[in-house]
Amino acid sequence: MSTAAREKTLVLMRHSKSVQGLAGPDHDRQLTDRGRRDAEAAGAWLREQGLVPDLVICSTAVRTRQTWEAACHGGAQAEFVEYRKNAYHGGAAAVLETIREDGGDMTTVLVVGHNPAMAELTSLLADGEGSSAAHEALSEGFSTTGLAVLRWSGEWADLEPGGCELLRFHVCRG
Predict the structure, then answer these.
(1) Quick one: angle between helices 117-126 and 132-139, nearest 10?
(2) Can you list the domains of the chain with their CATH numbers?
(3) What is the model's pTM?
(4) Beta bridge partner(s), residue 113
(5) Each residue of 12-45: pLDDT tens digit?
(6) Phi and psi (nearest 5°) for 169?
(7) Cα 139 versus chain centre, distance
């Protein structure tokens, strides 16, 4: 199998439950106790599924950083973690561009981001392809601590709409 045809895994994860309605900036919102438990459950689920990202692209927001930290306490692991402002400020197109630019030779990339970008990007990339059960679960909403697992065959730089298969969609609760 050539490098270009090597199958890759993309995991899109929405941050866990965060505090609502604080007077401070949205960027600084923190996880609730439930959010921390859910994120730890996500880390355990990632470990159980054998999903070990080579690269985590994480929004710079406090709640996404805390989500990944709690997931690691639950058993998640990653080779590299990069914090990107456009995973916070940008929508689905900005996150897609970040994956294309940062994915390099990585086999598994996990993005910790926000809605609606995570839901929109999942729908854009899978476009109905993959597991009908996963698409049905996704149709109920991309809840906090939701994880979409997609398969891509090709270079990250060439990742395109409709090019992935949605393998699984899971919402973690702790």
Answers:
(1) 150
(2) 7-171 (3.40.50.1240)
(3) 0.95
(4) 14
(5) 999 999 998 766 888 999 999 999 999 999 999 9
(6) -135, 125
(7) 17
